[in-house]
Specification:
There is one protein chain. Helices cover about 35% and strands about 15% of the residues. It has three helices and five strands; from the N terminus they run E-E-E-E-H-E-H-H. Strands 3-4-5 form a three-stranded antiparallel sheet. A two-stranded antiparallel ribbon has the order 1-2.
Amino acid sequence: MIVVTPRISLDESEIRESFIRASGPGGQNVNKVSSAVELRFDAKRSPNLPDGVRERLMKLAGRRLTLAGEIVITAQSHRSQEMNRADALEKLLDLIRAATIVPKARRKTKPTKSSQIKRVEGKTKRGAVKKLRARRPDLD
């Protein structure tokens, strides 16, 4: 079991890893070894995620989410496969932890009476200034 938070833990069987060739540093090794990691996690069907966390996770995943509801994370910043595996897993766990945070509900507020009056007075003054700038034709 992979512990995400004290209340959420994932089974290792829910995460699928495949190894692909990475671009970037590695010299000749980059052409021979598949050191990049593609991690897949089925967020839509995971039994260990509460519904609210699942919805926020799928929204946070953005373009990393497939139509089937899988989150695909690739890691290729390190030369070693093990470091890339750890990096991809940490990215997934960070994403899930971010989804556990419930956003505060926004409460609508009304502007105060004095702020409404100030706003209208400011508009009136500005209109007066613009009116004074207007060029009037000579009546001569």
